[in-house]
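Appendix B. Chain record.
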Amino acid sequence: MKTVLFVFLIFISANVMSQEYAPGQTWEYKTRSTEKTSTLTILKVEKYDDLGEVIHIRIDQIKMTNPTKGNEITDIPHLPFKKKALDSSITKLKGIETVPDFQEGYDTWKAAYDEGQAGAFETTVKETLEALLGAEWIEKE
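Structure tokens predicted for this chain:
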């Protein structure tokens, strides 16, 4: 019985650790302690020669204060992650939803990427959000 349970746990872990992502999937992930209900939504999946598989996501139900304006941020409409970083973040597929609009954020990222000025996050979603809190924010004109 222990062997069967062990094999089953390895199978479940492998499925979560190496996931096939598709636009519209909504996932629970390893959140910060104050954001237990936060979820992420897959927006787009792409492959690049230099970055590998890049998964573009939206994050909802977060709690961050914008240091330039002082307002509370409850969502981030676009962030690009490498697959391995997202694999290390997700915990449970919640469902499939309509992909929300993310074109402006994607276009900004893509233009910067094409100029060699942007990449994709290699840290977990939780670590990335923590880093954003400590980053220097510049107001977009």
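Further analysis of this model is presented in Appendix C.
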